[in-house]
C-alpha cells in the first residue's frame, strides 16, 4: 500500500481554509500531567502518574512528569504561541492533585490561582478556554483507597467539579468532565500499561461505572454552579474489526468494542449499557444490575460530545478460556493496512468517515454537537543544524488528511451527514510527558527542549497557522495575497525559537 502521506492531492492552506469556513472552531490542547511541571511544588500531592513513572520499565524512556513542558512557569509564552497560531480554543485540563491535594475539603488557593491566571490570559488573547476536570491523573490518596474501583471516588469527583466550576465557570464557557475514560479502564486497570498499572482483566469493570457516575455527578455540579457553562465528555471512538468471520472472533470483537467505546458512549448518550450476548456476557452482567438512578445521572443530555479518534484494532479470540474467567477474551493484532506513527500507531484518516457514520447510526439525534480530536500523532522530524528549525511534514499531513475526511463525511450527501462538528482540536500545542511513552514520542506542534524548556514551533505549526490566517481572510472577505498563504506543507520560513 502506498502511504497516504505521499498523496499528491492534499489541499494547500488556502484550500483547506475554504473547507474550514463553515464555522467549526479550531483549537489545540494541553494536559496537566504532560505539560505543567512543578509536580512537587505549591502543595501539589502526587498523582498516579508520578507513582507509575517510578516503576522500572513502566515509561519507555524512564522519564517522569516532574518538569513536563514547564508550562506553569511559561504559560504566557504558550498563550502567545496559541495566539500567533490563530486558534479559537485552547483545551486544558486541571490537576486534581494541585487544586485539591487531599481530594477533600476546599480548593487550594495556590493551585487554583494558576488556572485563574491561565484563563484570564486566554480570554485577553481572544481564545476560548475549554477546561477538562480530569485527564487520567487521579490523586494517589484516592488510588490508595481503591481509586476508580470504589464508588466513593465518583462522589469525591462530584465535589471537585462543583468547587472548580464555582471558581472558574464564570469565565470558562465549555467544560469536559473526563477525557477518554476507556483508557483509564483498559490501559490503567485491564492491561496495566497506563497508570495506575493494575492488571485486573474483566475485574476492572467497576472502573467503567464509577468513572461514568463521576461524569454524571460532575455534569450536575457544573450546572448547579452559578454559570451557564456548557458540559460534555470526551470518549474514544475507533474501528474494531474481527480478525476473521469465525464466530469466536466476531464475539471477541464485540467485547473489545464494548470495552473500548460502547460501554462508555451508550451509557452517556442512551442512558443504558449495551446488551452483550455470547460466551463472555456473564462478565458484564454486573453492569446490567446497576441502580437505574445511576444511569439517569450518567445519561443526562450533554451540550457537546468529544470524539477522540483512536487507533483501529483487529481482534482475534483467545482460545480455551475457562468458563467464568475474568481474563480478557481477545487479543489485538497488528493493523498493517496504514502507515505508522513514530510510536507504532496506525495513521488512518480514511477511516474517519466510518467512525462518524457509526456514531450517527448508533445514536441518531441523541448525539450532541461533536468536538473532534485525535487528528495528530507522534511523527519523525528533521532538524536543520544551521538554524534549529524543525520540519515534521507527516504531522501536517495527518492533521490535514483527518480534517478533509471528517468535513467531507459530515457534508450534505456524506457518509456521516447529520453529524455536526462544533469544534476540532487539531493537536497538542506542546511536547511533554506522553504517558507511558514518556518523551520518546513527542506530539507537539511546538518542540519543547526537555533540558531548557525552549520552545521552537515546528513546520506543522506554521502550516496550521497559515491555514487559520487564510480562514480569517476568507471570513473577512479579504482575498489571500497572491492567492496562497505559502507552501502546502513544510518549507515556509523557520518559526521563532522562544528562549528561556
Task: Walk me through this protein's architecture.
It is a single chain. The chain is an alpha/beta fold. The chain has a single domain (4-483), classed as TIM Barrel (Alpha-Beta Barrel), CATH 3.20.20. The chain has helices at 13-19, 32-35, 48-53, 71-85, 96-99, 109-124, 140-143, 151-168, 181-191, 206-224, 247-270, 285-288, 292-298, 352-363, 393-410, 459-476, and strands spanning 25-29, 89-93, 128-134, 174-179, 230-237, 240-242, 304-309, 313-317, 330-333, 370-373, 382-383, 390-391, 421-430, 444-448, 455-457. The N and C termini lie far apart (44 Å). GO terms for molecular function: beta-glucosidase activity.
Keywords:
alpha/beta, single chain, EC 3.2.1.21, 500 residues, beta-glucosidase activity, 16 helices, TIM Barrel, 15% strand, 8-stranded parallel beta barrel, disordered C terminus, hydrolase, globular, Beta-glucosidase, GH, 3-stranded mixed beta sheet
Précis, in short:
The protein is an alpha/beta fold. Helices cover 37% and strands 15% of the residues. It has one domain: Glycosidases (TIM Barrel), CATH 3.20.20.
Strand content: 15-25%
Q: Span between N and C termini?
A: 44 Å
Helix content: 25-40%
The CATH architecture designation is: Alpha-Beta Barrel
User: Largest beta sheet: what is the strand line-up?
Assistant: 1-2-3-4-5-7-10-13
- Whole-number total of structural domains: 1
> CATH homologous superfamily - what is it?
Glycosidases
Number of helices: 16
**What do the pLDDT scores average to?**
91
Q: What structural class do the secondary elements suggest?
A: alpha/beta
Low-pLDDT stretches: 1-6, 479-500
